[in-house]
Write a structure and sequence with these properties.
The chain is mostly helical. The chain has five helices and two strands; from the N terminus they run H-H-E-H-H-H-E.
Length: about 110
Amino acid sequence: MKLTKAAAISLALLAPSVAVAQPLMENIAALAVASRWCKDYTVDVESGLKLALSEGMNPLKSPYKQAFEEAKEKLEGVLAKVGVNRFCSVTYERYKPGGPVPGFMVKN
């Protein structure tokens, strides 16, 4: 089934813009980096992905993939500068139970 131009435009307007999705992509990227490097913590990336998908944003597909990948690269650069322990500590403060974005990270 081929979409008409009007239908394609309507679908595009319904999808959240990348600018709107940017903060969520940054949070998921932080969780993805933390899940790889922060071995003293349990990181719930899956819930972040489910949240994004429920909002119509898939960080593994365009146009959101680029925002996700850029945020992930930036955070990996930060990790390289500050070290794993500091990165994990700061990330935990944000995602710990009761933190600003609570419940995505717990200490083992």
